[in-house]
Structures are given as C-alpha cells and as structure tokens.
C-alpha cells in the first residue's frame, strides 16, 4: 500500500495524501481511508558508498497525481509511505512500513504512468520539533482540525491578517 503526501515545495505545507493499493480490482478501506487499487511496481537499488534508492512506477488512472506534479515542482519532495498489510487481518499493524522522499519524478501524460525515484529520509534534514510557532505566520491547514477559524473568509494566506 502507498500513501503519497503531496507537499508544496514553496511553503513545505502538506496539501493532500493520496492512498493507493495493489489489490487486484478491489479498493481497500484501512483505518477509515479508501486505498484505490492500481498497478504499481517497486524496484530497489543498493550500491556500496551510495544511499539506497527505490524506483516506483504506477498507473495514475485519474490523472490526479500528474496534476499535482505539474503544480508542485514535478513531484520532487513528495513523501511516499510504503507499507505491507495482511488484508486477512487488518487490525494488525503493517508488517513493513517505510517513508521515502521523492528524489526524481517523471510522468507520461498520454499513458497515465508515473515514475518516482525514492530515497530514504535524511534524519539530519528533519525539523525538530516538527511543529514550530511563529509570531507572524499560522502553521495550521485552513479549516483543518487544528484551525479554529470560524469566520466567512473563503481562503487563507496563513498570515494573522488572513487576507
């Protein structure tokens, strides 16, 4: 199963998570999320004195990932969580789970095929603490669970003025 986090490269904000699975012709409901079935392949590559990489290619039948790639730097910087789940007992934790960062990406819009080169997360590049507070900028996703705004503005620019 895959969970692809679309990240805005300009702000670092999480835009959306796209859930995919490889389960024949049947979607999977896991922890309240629908994982849409699609064909995908993963190949790993490991060389001495080089970081490990994996190649992920899949069919984007709706074109939604290709559209996000066009809007957000071609998909470079997206986060991909890969995990294996025993569909016979979905209450168990995944047998394997790893998060990768997209290093390179390409898409064939005619064939709706997407290819990512994935690299392991760099622990030195992770922000600690993950959440930082600034006096002139809001960190929450507009009208998300943490956002307490109840006014009538249609959008938010993440400033305290909310223009």
Secondary structure blueprint with pairings:
Layout: E1 2-7, E2 14-21, E3 28-30, E4 33-37, E5 40-45, E6 53-59, H1 64-71, E7 79-84, E8 96-108, E9 113-120
Tell me about the largest β-sheet.
Answer: 9 strands, mixed
Strand runs, count: 9
Instruction: Give the amount of beta strand, in percent.
Output: 35-45%
Poorly predicted regions are none
- Please give the count of helices: 1
Give the CA-CA distance, first to last residue: 39 Å
Structural category is: mainly beta
Radius of gyration, whole Å: 18 Å
Please trace the helix and strand order, writing H or E for each element: EEEEEEHEEE
Number of domains: 2
Specify the helix fraction band: under 10%
- Major sheet: arrangement of strands: 3-4-2-1-7-8-9-6-5
Shape: globular
Q: What is the residue-mean pLDDT, rounded to a whole number?
A: 85
GO molecular function: iron-sulfur cluster binding
GO biological process, one term: symbiont entry into host cell
InterPro entries: Phage_lambda_L (IPR006487)
GO cellular component, one term: host cell cytoplasm
Report on this structure.
The protein has two domains: 2-125; 128-163, no CATH class. The protein is 5% helix and 38% strand. The protein has one helix spanning 64-71, and strands at 2-7, 14-21, 28-30, 33-37, 40-45, 53-59, 79-84, 96-108, 113-120. The protein has a nine-stranded mixed β-sheet, covered by helices on one side. Strand 5 (40-45) and strand 6 (53-59) form a beta hairpin. The longest helix has 8 residues, at 64-71. The radius of gyration is 18 Å and the shape is globular.
């Amino acid at each position: 199963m895959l969970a692809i986090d679309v990240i805005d490269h300009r702000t670092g904000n999480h835009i959306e998570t796209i859930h995919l699975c490889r389960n024949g012709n049947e979607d999977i409901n896991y922890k309240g999320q629908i994982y849409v079935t699609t064909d995908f392949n993963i190949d790993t590559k490991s060389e001495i004195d080089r970081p490990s990489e994996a190649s992920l290619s899949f069919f984007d039948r709706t074109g939604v990932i290709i559209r996000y790639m066009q809007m957000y730097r071609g998909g470079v910087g997206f986060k991909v969580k890969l995990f294996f789940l025993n569909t016979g007992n979905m209450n168990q934790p995944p047998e394997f789970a790893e998060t990768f960062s997209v290093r390179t990406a390409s898409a064939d819009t005619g064939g709706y095929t997407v290819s990512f080169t994935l690299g392991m997360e760099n622990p030195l590049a992770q922000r600690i603490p993950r959440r930082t507070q600034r006096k002139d900028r809001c960190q929450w996703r507009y009208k998300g669970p943490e956002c307490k705004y109840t006014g009538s503005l249609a959008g938010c620019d993440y400033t305290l003025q909310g223009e």
